[in-house]
Amino acid sequence: MSLSTQGNALSLSVPGVAVLTAGVAVAAAGTILGLRRMDYERVPQVALLSAAFFVVSFLRVPLGLTSVHLVLNGLIGLLLGWAAFPALLIALFLQAVLLGFGGLTTLGINTTTMALPAVVCYYLFHPMVQSRRELVALLGAFAAGVTAFVLSLLLVGSALLAAGTEFRGFAQAFVVVDLPVALVEGMVSGGVVAFLRKVRPETLEAPLLARDRLEMSDA
After folding, report:
1. Which CATH number covers residue 72?
2. Angle 31-36-38 (CA atoms, 0-180°, nearest 5)?
3. How far apart are CA 181 and CA 141, in angstroms?
4. pLDDT tens across 147-196, in order?
5. Of the candidates 33, 189, 19, which has an alpha carbon nearest to the alpha carbon of residue 113?
6. Cα separation, 125 vs 142, whole angstroms
7. Is residue 76 helix, strand or coil?
8. Rounded distance, CA 91 to CA 88, Å?
9. Is the separation of the CB atoms in 22 and 109 below 8 Å?
10. pLDDT digit string (tens) for 104-137?
11. Which structural domain, as residue segments, surrounds residue 17?
12. What are phi and psi for residue 191, nearest 5 degrees?
């Protein structure tokens, strides 16, 4: 689920260039904020989830005559918060450079459509994931997986529509073909959170802001 195949076409129109530029601006701002707010003791966790996103993108899910892939940006958002921006940016960059998947032209907008929903879901559902009630935590993880995926779909579709009416067909195809995968995203996210609650519950803690850590140490 990306704008990789339409990158060159988007760059040929003024609205398309505006969409790509906006994507770069949001991705840059989110990445800077993510790096500033990241607890650097969790850099290995960020790297691990970045690698997981890199790998899972190649796991194709058959869907009728075509196939789609998981992204797990909801799960990444739950575990990383704002650090989802640098994590996803690195994964998408490596996919573009090493494997030709995605593309540098659309790196900014792809990062934005993946990471922004991840951060939104962090704020919406992270408190549920930390609940002492198992059912509440699983529902929160499921909702984060579904919501992040749907929001990413809507952002991709909106970006295509904003680039021009000639991309309307692509926008509709993105939503119709990929939408059923949202349920799979939710189930996988719920399963991973259930596993982490049993073996590594500390990974589900809210990542401390760097400035908050300094304030706590001064106190």
Report:
1. 1.10.1760.20
2. 90
3. 15
4. 999 999 888 888 888 877 666 776 677 677 778 888 989 999 999 999 99
5. 19
6. 9
7. helix
8. 5
9. yes
10. 888 999 999 999 999 999 999 999 998 989 999 9
11. 4-206
12. -65, -40
